[in-house]
Write a structure and sequence with these properties.
alpha+beta
């Protein structure tokens, strides 16, 4: 598995990935549309997160298998630096576990005091 920093050019890749996941979970097209408006991965959210350089994607060859969206937070709950992982998604538990490990290692490498995960959303 190859893990790399996501770029703004990866926006459509993420949107297509998430819409495919949502289609498997929600049969009603109108409900899918409504859910996509409130999702952590909606278009304007990706426009914010991707240029920051803290979001990573997992690839198996050329196949996109998962990702997380993250940003830094300063002075949160008395801690000077926190890595906030807003959303994490993967094709299976192995991908999600690898992405969680990347976030933890990134936090350690960059001397963050805490890595926070918004939720434990699963594929």
């Amino acid at each position: 598995m190859d893990i790399r920093v996501l770029q703004p050019s990866d926006k459509d890749l993420i949107l297509n990935y998430e819409m495919g996941r949502l289609a498997r979970l929600e049969p009603d097209e109108n409900e899918r549309k409504f859910k996509s408006w409130h999702a952590s991965w909606r278009s304007e959210s990706l426009d914010y997160y991707l240029p920051l350089g803290w979001s990573f994607g997992a690839f198996l060859g050329e196949v996109f298998t998962g990702y997380f969206l993250a940003q830094t937070q300063l002075f949160t709950r008395t801690l000077a630096q926190t890595l906030w992982v807003e959303h994490i998604a993967g094709n299976d538990e192995a991908v999600i576990t690898e992405l969680v490990d990347v976030a933890r290692k990134l936090g350690r490498e960059k001397h963050f005091q805490r890595v926070l995960f918004m939720s434990d959303e699963r594929a």
